[in-house]
Amino acid sequence: MDMIVRPRRLRKSQAVRRMVRETRMDQASLIYPMFVMDGENIEEEIGAMPGQFRYSVDRMPYELERIQKAGVTQVMLFGIPAKKDEVGSQAYAPDGIVQRALREAKRQFPDLYYITDVCMCEYTSHGHCGLLHGDYVDNDSTLGSLAKIALSHVEAGADMVAPSDMMDGRVRAIRTALDGHGYLDVPIMSYAVKYASAFYGPFRDAAGSAPSFGDRKSYQMDPHNRREGLKEAALDLQEGADILMVKPALSYLDVLSDVKRETCVPVAAYSVSGEYSMVKAAAHAGFVDEERIICEMAVSTYRAGADIYLTYFAKELAGFIQEGRIG
Fold first, then answer.
1. Can you list the residues of the chain whose pLDDT is less than 50?
2. 247, 260, 280, 315: which one is catalytic?
3. Cα–Cα distance between 91 and 107 in angstroms, integer?
Protein backbone atom coordinates (compact mmCIF):
# COMPACT_ATOMS: atom_id res chain seq x y z
CA MET A 1 0.00 0.00 0.00
CA ASP A 2 1.19 3.54 -0.73
CA MET A 3 1.43 5.03 2.80
CA ILE A 4 4.18 7.50 3.66
CA VAL A 5 2.99 8.31 7.18
CA ARG A 6 2.83 5.25 9.44
CA PRO A 7 2.40 6.11 13.13
CA ARG A 8 3.07 2.47 14.03
CA ARG A 9 6.77 2.97 13.21
CA LEU A 10 7.17 4.69 16.57
CA ARG A 11 5.39 1.86 18.41
CA LYS A 12 7.45 -1.05 17.11
CA SER A 13 9.64 -1.65 20.16
CA GLN A 14 9.76 -0.80 23.84
CA ALA A 15 12.88 1.28 23.20
CA VAL A 16 11.27 3.56 20.65
CA ARG A 17 8.00 3.79 22.58
CA ARG A 18 9.86 5.00 25.67
CA MET A 19 11.97 7.42 23.63
CA VAL A 20 8.96 9.26 22.16
CA ARG A 21 6.66 9.30 25.19
CA GLU A 22 4.86 12.57 25.69
CA THR A 23 4.21 11.98 29.39
CA ARG A 24 7.01 11.10 31.79
CA MET A 25 7.07 10.35 35.50
CA ASP A 26 9.74 10.24 38.15
CA GLN A 27 9.93 9.17 41.77
CA ALA A 28 10.57 12.70 43.00
CA SER A 29 7.02 13.75 42.08
CA LEU A 30 5.35 11.14 44.33
CA ILE A 31 3.89 11.86 47.77
CA TYR A 32 2.79 9.07 50.09
CA PRO A 33 -0.12 9.82 52.47
CA MET A 34 0.36 8.24 55.90
CA PHE A 35 -1.84 7.96 59.01
CA VAL A 36 -0.35 8.42 62.48
CA MET A 37 -2.32 7.91 65.68
CA ASP A 38 -2.08 8.21 69.43
CA GLY A 39 -1.14 5.08 71.37
CA GLU A 40 1.77 2.65 71.47
CA ASN A 41 2.86 -0.36 69.42
CA ILE A 42 0.06 0.13 66.88
CA GLU A 43 0.30 -0.95 63.26
CA GLU A 44 -3.38 -1.36 62.47
CA GLU A 45 -4.64 -2.22 59.00
CA ILE A 46 -7.46 -0.02 57.73
CA GLY A 47 -10.46 -2.21 56.90
CA ALA A 48 -11.66 -0.07 53.99
CA MET A 49 -8.14 0.31 52.57
CA PRO A 50 -6.39 -3.09 52.43
CA GLY A 51 -2.63 -2.67 52.63
CA GLN A 52 -2.81 0.72 54.36
CA PHE A 53 -2.22 1.11 58.10
CA ARG A 54 -2.50 3.46 61.05
CA TYR A 55 0.78 3.79 62.93
CA SER A 56 1.57 4.93 66.45
CA VAL A 57 4.64 7.15 66.70
CA ASP A 58 6.84 4.29 67.93
CA ARG A 59 5.87 2.09 64.94
CA MET A 60 5.92 4.88 62.35
CA PRO A 61 9.72 4.69 61.74
CA TYR A 62 9.42 1.15 60.39
CA GLU A 63 7.09 2.39 57.67
CA LEU A 64 9.21 5.46 56.99
CA GLU A 65 12.14 3.12 56.39
CA ARG A 66 10.07 1.11 53.90
CA ILE A 67 8.98 4.31 52.16
CA GLN A 68 12.55 5.54 51.86
CA LYS A 69 13.81 2.17 50.56
CA ALA A 70 11.05 2.19 47.94
CA GLY A 71 12.44 5.45 46.57
CA VAL A 72 9.72 7.80 47.81
CA THR A 73 11.07 10.97 49.43
CA GLN A 74 7.88 12.89 50.34
CA VAL A 75 5.34 11.95 53.01
CA MET A 76 2.07 13.64 53.93
CA LEU A 77 1.00 13.07 57.53
CA PHE A 78 -2.59 12.80 58.75
CA GLY A 79 -3.19 12.67 62.50
CA ILE A 80 -5.73 10.62 64.43
CA PRO A 81 -5.97 11.86 68.04
CA ALA A 82 -7.15 9.87 71.04
CA LYS A 83 -9.30 12.78 72.23
CA LYS A 84 -11.58 15.08 70.26
CA ASP A 85 -13.49 18.16 71.30
CA GLU A 86 -15.83 20.75 69.83
CA VAL A 87 -13.00 23.05 68.72
CA GLY A 88 -10.42 20.44 67.65
CA SER A 89 -7.83 21.65 70.14
CA GLN A 90 -5.57 18.62 69.66
CA ALA A 91 -4.93 19.76 66.10
CA TYR A 92 -2.70 22.60 67.32
CA ALA A 93 -1.54 21.18 70.66
CA PRO A 94 2.28 21.19 71.03
CA ASP A 95 2.10 17.52 72.04
CA GLY A 96 -0.54 16.60 69.43
CA ILE A 97 -0.15 13.46 67.38
CA VAL A 98 1.16 15.13 64.21
CA GLN A 99 3.52 17.35 66.18
CA ARG A 100 5.03 14.37 68.02
CA ALA A 101 5.20 12.33 64.82
CA LEU A 102 7.05 15.15 63.04
CA ARG A 103 9.66 15.50 65.74
CA GLU A 104 10.34 11.76 65.77
CA ALA A 105 10.32 11.46 61.98
CA LYS A 106 12.73 14.37 61.61
CA ARG A 107 15.03 12.83 64.20
CA GLN A 108 15.20 9.40 62.58
CA PHE A 109 14.67 10.20 58.89
CA PRO A 110 15.81 13.79 58.34
CA ASP A 111 16.28 13.29 54.60
CA LEU A 112 12.57 12.72 53.94
CA TYR A 113 10.38 15.73 53.15
CA TYR A 114 7.36 16.12 55.44
CA ILE A 115 4.09 17.71 54.43
CA THR A 116 1.16 17.99 56.82
CA ASP A 117 -2.55 18.07 56.18
CA VAL A 118 -4.02 21.14 57.87
CA CYS A 119 -7.66 20.58 58.74
CA MET A 120 -9.89 20.05 61.77
CA CYS A 121 -12.18 17.18 60.76
CA GLU A 122 -10.08 14.45 62.41
CA TYR A 123 -9.93 16.47 65.64
CA THR A 124 -13.45 17.82 66.15
CA SER A 125 -16.09 15.84 68.00
CA HIS A 126 -18.59 16.73 65.27
CA GLY A 127 -16.30 15.76 62.38
CA HIS A 128 -16.59 19.00 60.42
CA CYS A 129 -13.61 20.91 59.05
CA GLY A 130 -14.18 24.09 61.06
CA LEU A 131 -15.78 25.68 64.08
CA LEU A 132 -19.55 25.52 64.40
CA HIS A 133 -22.04 28.34 64.80
CA GLY A 134 -25.11 26.31 65.62
CA ASP A 135 -25.18 23.66 62.91
CA TYR A 136 -23.29 25.80 60.39
CA VAL A 137 -19.53 25.68 59.83
CA ASP A 138 -18.43 29.25 60.45
CA ASN A 139 -15.84 30.30 57.90
CA ASP A 140 -14.18 33.34 59.45
CA SER A 141 -13.87 32.11 63.02
CA THR A 142 -12.21 28.94 61.71
CA LEU A 143 -9.34 30.80 60.03
CA GLY A 144 -7.49 31.54 63.25
CA SER A 145 -7.57 27.87 64.25
CA LEU A 146 -6.23 26.77 60.86
CA ALA A 147 -3.38 29.27 61.14
CA LYS A 148 -2.54 27.93 64.62
CA ILE A 149 -2.53 24.35 63.30
CA ALA A 150 -0.21 25.20 60.42
CA LEU A 151 2.15 27.16 62.65
CA SER A 152 2.30 24.34 65.22
CA HIS A 153 3.17 21.86 62.46
CA VAL A 154 5.98 24.02 61.12
CA GLU A 155 7.34 24.62 64.62
CA ALA A 156 7.42 20.83 65.05
CA GLY A 157 9.36 20.35 61.80
CA ALA A 158 6.95 20.31 58.85
CA ASP A 159 8.65 21.24 55.57
CA MET A 160 5.36 22.20 53.89
CA VAL A 161 1.74 22.61 54.99
CA ALA A 162 -1.33 21.66 53.00
CA PRO A 163 -4.68 23.16 54.08
CA SER A 164 -7.57 20.91 53.03
CA ASP A 165 -10.53 22.52 54.83
CA MET A 166 -11.87 24.65 51.94
CA MET A 167 -12.60 27.71 54.09
CA ASP A 168 -12.45 30.97 52.14
CA GLY A 169 -9.33 32.96 53.02
CA ARG A 170 -7.45 30.20 54.82
CA VAL A 171 -4.34 30.40 52.63
CA ARG A 172 -3.90 34.10 53.46
CA ALA A 173 -4.46 33.42 57.17
CA ILE A 174 -1.82 30.67 57.18
CA ARG A 175 0.66 32.66 55.10
CA THR A 176 0.29 35.64 57.41
CA ALA A 177 0.85 33.48 60.51
CA LEU A 178 3.90 31.72 59.09
CA ASP A 179 5.49 34.91 57.80
CA GLY A 180 4.78 36.68 61.06
CA HIS A 181 6.78 34.03 62.93
CA GLY A 182 9.70 34.06 60.51
CA TYR A 183 8.75 31.03 58.40
CA LEU A 184 8.85 32.90 55.12
CA ASP A 185 10.34 29.98 53.19
CA VAL A 186 7.82 27.29 54.18
CA PRO A 187 5.60 26.55 51.14
CA ILE A 188 1.84 26.09 51.17
CA MET A 189 0.31 23.40 48.99
CA SER A 190 -3.34 24.34 48.92
CA TYR A 191 -6.15 21.88 48.38
CA ALA A 192 -7.41 24.61 46.08
CA VAL A 193 -9.95 22.61 44.07
CA LYS A 194 -11.48 20.05 46.41
CA TYR A 195 -14.81 18.53 45.52
CA ALA A 196 -17.51 17.12 47.84
CA SER A 197 -16.82 13.63 46.55
CA ALA A 198 -18.09 10.13 47.31
CA PHE A 199 -14.52 8.95 46.65
CA TYR A 200 -13.51 10.02 50.18
CA GLY A 201 -15.49 7.26 51.89
CA PRO A 202 -12.59 4.95 52.86
CA PHE A 203 -10.53 7.88 54.18
CA ARG A 204 -13.28 8.79 56.62
CA ASP A 205 -13.10 5.25 57.94
CA ALA A 206 -9.32 5.46 58.14
CA ALA A 207 -9.23 8.79 59.97
CA GLY A 208 -12.53 8.59 61.85
CA SER A 209 -13.48 11.92 60.31
CA ALA A 210 -17.03 11.42 59.04
CA PRO A 211 -19.28 14.34 60.07
CA SER A 212 -21.71 13.46 62.85
CA PHE A 213 -24.46 15.39 61.09
CA GLY A 214 -25.04 16.88 57.67
CA ASP A 215 -22.33 16.89 55.03
CA ARG A 216 -19.55 19.11 53.67
CA LYS A 217 -21.32 20.44 50.61
CA SER A 218 -21.47 23.98 51.98
CA TYR A 219 -17.68 24.27 51.84
CA GLN A 220 -16.37 21.60 49.45
CA MET A 221 -17.10 22.10 45.77
CA ASP A 222 -20.07 20.84 43.77
CA PRO A 223 -18.93 18.04 41.39
CA HIS A 224 -21.09 19.59 38.66
CA ASN A 225 -18.87 22.70 38.47
CA ARG A 226 -15.78 23.02 36.32
CA ARG A 227 -15.15 26.76 35.87
CA GLU A 228 -15.49 27.31 39.62
CA GLY A 229 -12.26 25.34 40.01
CA LEU A 230 -10.37 28.11 38.21
CA LYS A 231 -11.90 30.71 40.53
CA GLU A 232 -10.78 28.76 43.59
CA ALA A 233 -7.30 28.26 42.14
CA ALA A 234 -6.94 31.96 41.30
CA LEU A 235 -8.02 33.04 44.78
CA ASP A 236 -5.54 30.73 46.49
CA LEU A 237 -2.74 32.03 44.27
CA GLN A 238 -3.62 35.60 45.23
CA GLU A 239 -3.47 34.58 48.89
CA GLY A 240 0.00 33.06 48.60
CA ALA A 241 -0.36 29.39 47.66
CA ASP A 242 2.83 27.96 46.18
CA ILE A 243 1.33 24.72 44.84
CA LEU A 244 -2.29 24.06 43.85
CA MET A 245 -3.98 20.71 44.32
CA VAL A 246 -6.97 19.16 42.59
CA LYS A 247 -8.79 16.48 44.59
CA PRO A 248 -9.90 13.81 43.71
CA ALA A 249 -7.78 13.00 40.68
CA LEU A 250 -9.34 10.47 38.33
CA SER A 251 -12.85 11.90 37.94
CA TYR A 252 -11.60 15.49 37.72
CA LEU A 253 -8.89 15.29 35.07
CA ASP A 254 -10.67 17.97 33.02
CA VAL A 255 -10.41 20.36 35.97
CA LEU A 256 -6.79 19.38 36.54
CA SER A 257 -6.04 20.19 32.91
CA ASP A 258 -7.76 23.58 33.24
CA VAL A 259 -5.77 24.53 36.34
CA LYS A 260 -2.51 23.46 34.73
CA ARG A 261 -3.22 25.50 31.60
CA GLU A 262 -4.38 28.65 33.38
CA THR A 263 -1.77 28.91 36.16
CA CYS A 264 2.01 29.06 36.37
CA VAL A 265 2.67 27.17 39.60
CA PRO A 266 3.15 23.42 40.18
CA VAL A 267 -0.11 21.48 40.19
CA ALA A 268 -0.73 18.43 42.37
CA ALA A 269 -3.42 15.78 42.10
CA TYR A 270 -4.56 13.53 44.95
CA SER A 271 -5.58 10.00 43.98
CA VAL A 272 -7.85 9.50 46.94
CA SER A 273 -8.88 6.59 49.13
CA GLY A 274 -11.88 5.59 47.05
CA GLU A 275 -9.74 5.23 43.95
CA TYR A 276 -7.28 3.09 45.90
CA SER A 277 -9.94 0.86 47.45
CA MET A 278 -11.76 0.30 44.16
CA VAL A 279 -8.55 -0.90 42.54
CA LYS A 280 -7.79 -3.17 45.48
CA ALA A 281 -11.30 -4.66 45.49
CA ALA A 282 -11.39 -5.22 41.73
CA ALA A 283 -7.90 -6.75 41.71
CA HIS A 284 -8.77 -9.04 44.63
CA ALA A 285 -11.81 -10.26 42.69
CA GLY A 286 -9.63 -10.93 39.65
CA PHE A 287 -11.43 -8.37 37.51
CA VAL A 288 -8.39 -6.21 36.67
CA ASP A 289 -4.61 -6.38 36.48
CA GLU A 290 -3.62 -4.34 39.56
CA GLU A 291 -0.22 -3.20 38.32
CA ARG A 292 -1.50 -2.07 34.94
CA ILE A 293 -4.43 -0.21 36.49
CA ILE A 294 -2.15 1.58 39.00
CA CYS A 295 0.17 2.65 36.19
CA GLU A 296 -2.59 3.71 33.81
CA MET A 297 -4.29 5.83 36.47
CA ALA A 298 -0.99 7.54 37.24
CA VAL A 299 -0.13 8.16 33.60
CA SER A 300 -3.56 9.64 32.90
CA THR A 301 -3.17 12.03 35.82
CA TYR A 302 0.26 13.21 34.70
CA ARG A 303 -0.97 13.43 31.11
CA ALA A 304 -3.79 15.73 32.24
CA GLY A 305 -1.22 18.08 33.78
CA ALA A 306 -0.16 16.92 37.24
CA ASP A 307 3.37 17.78 38.32
CA ILE A 308 2.92 16.09 41.70
CA TYR A 309 0.96 12.93 42.48
CA LEU A 310 -0.33 12.04 45.94
CA THR A 311 -1.22 8.38 46.01
CA TYR A 312 -1.45 5.41 48.36
CA PHE A 313 0.28 3.49 45.57
CA ALA A 314 3.39 5.70 45.78
CA LYS A 315 5.68 2.87 46.92
CA GLU A 316 4.51 0.58 44.13
CA LEU A 317 4.82 3.32 41.51
CA ALA A 318 8.33 4.20 42.67
CA GLY A 319 9.28 0.56 42.15
CA PHE A 320 7.69 0.40 38.72
CA ILE A 321 9.57 3.57 37.69
CA GLN A 322 12.85 2.19 39.04
CA GLU A 323 12.36 -1.04 37.12
CA GLY A 324 11.43 0.77 33.90
CA ARG A 325 7.89 -0.60 33.80
CA ILE A 326 6.49 2.92 33.81
CA GLY A 327 8.05 6.32 33.45
1. none
2. 247
3. 21
